[in-house]
């Protein structure tokens, strides 16, 4: 198993590929901009999950757990990736409306995360591979502890906790007004749900979030997106059926190349410029990704590509302006 991250002396690959693709296919710009149909998709899933939660109030706990894993987890993970879409302002034209819809999409998740996610996720795009700024990268502590199959099973099962808590330790950011609004809306919703339907519906929602972020097919994208499965490549796309439930987040090279294209149109990007993606390794099964991550002794948390700030174009520009951005 790797004892250290894979160091790159070059900038992340997406900025260069973006320039090359736009030079060859300027019509790609026609794909830019929000997709308002996302509002109806999000509203439908939120209402469906709330109805499902209300219906479990009289079920036994074994049935609630099974329903959370085989049904609720798919819906809550869909909402998590809807929040990802909203973090890029890809449903409405104005950031304000995207933030509000993100707080609404957050309600069935049970735990406030929409606003905080946006803060850190945009850093992931701007500073890909820079430790301390790109908090998607596992910490050195995770790499040193997760060393065998047993520890990787535990890590994958609880990876949503690592994903959510890592930023607070690696790059803490002070909360603001929007975080307070996100928290207030979530607490009011959770309290109302418990008051009118009891604790089981809320437990169902939180279980759906937790189980859907661990040993679950939907959670395979956490590993498939940037863990190095082929040396020299740091971002991977997934071309499989679960894209239908995940806002096409599997088109991950495409997404990083053009974050301004909504998930509903990413497949068109690949159709317009297929030669830019044909030579890249990709995944066809998120279940296989999880299985391989757990069982392959050469793959672990250190299988990520990292770079120094001076090898990031945005960091260089900020430094030229006298704004130091370091990991």
Q: How would you characterize the overall build of this protein?
A:
Keywords: Endoplasmic reticulum, Lipid metabolism, Membrane, Oxidoreductase, Transmembrane, Transmembrane helix. Sphingolipid-delta-4-desaturase required for the biosynthesis of delta-4-unsaturated sphingolipids and derivatives. It is a multi-pass membrane protein. Belongs to the fatty acid desaturase type 1 family. DEGS subfamily. One of its GO terms (molecular function) is sphingolipid delta-4 desaturase activity. The chain is an all-alpha fold and 327 residues long. The protein has one domain. The chain contains 15 helices and 4 strands. The strands form 2 sheets. The protein has a two-stranded parallel ribbon with strand order 1-4. The mean pLDDT is 95.
């Amino acid at each position: 198993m790797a004892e250290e991250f894979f160091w790159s002396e070059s900038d992340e690959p997406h900025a260069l590929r973006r320039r090359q693709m736009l030079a060859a296919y300027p019509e790609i710009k026609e794909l830019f901009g929000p997709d308002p149909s996302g509002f109806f998709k999000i509203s439908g899933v939120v209402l469906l999950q709330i109805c499902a939660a209300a219906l479990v109030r009289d079920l036994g706990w074994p049935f609630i757990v099974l329903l959370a894993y085989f049904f609720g987890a798919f819906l809550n993970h869909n909402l998590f990736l809807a929040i990802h879409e909203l973090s890029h302002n890809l449903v409405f034209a104005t950031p304000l409306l995207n933030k509000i819809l993100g707080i609404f999409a957050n309600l069935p998740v049970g735990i406030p995360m929409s606003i905080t996610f946006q803060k850190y996720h945009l850093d992931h795009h701007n500073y890909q591979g820079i430790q301390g700024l790109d908090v998607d990268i596992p910490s050195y502590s995770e790499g040193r502890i997760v060393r065998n199959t047993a520890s990787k099973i535990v890590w994958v099962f609880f990876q949503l906790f690592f994903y959510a808590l890592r930023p607070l330790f690696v790059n803490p950011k002070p909360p603001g007004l929007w975080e307070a609004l996100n928290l207030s809306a979530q607490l009011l919703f959770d309290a109302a749900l418990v008051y009118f339907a009891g604790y089981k519906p809320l437990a169902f929602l939180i279980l759906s979030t937790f189980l859907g972020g661990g040993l679950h097919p939907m959670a395979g994208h956490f590993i498939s997106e940037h863990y190095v499965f082929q040396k020299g490549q740091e971002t991977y796309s997934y071309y499989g059926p679960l894209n239908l439930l995940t806002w096409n987040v599997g088109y991950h090279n495409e997404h990083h190349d053009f974050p301004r294209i909504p998930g509903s149109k990413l497949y068109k990007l690949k159709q317009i410029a297929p030669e830019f993606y044909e030579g890249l390794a990709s995944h066809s099964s998120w279940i296989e990704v999880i299985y391989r991550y757990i069982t392959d002794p050469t793959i672990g948390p250190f299988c990520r590509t990292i770079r120094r700030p001076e090898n990031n174009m945005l960091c260089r520009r900020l430094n030229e302006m006298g704004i130091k951005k370091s990991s």
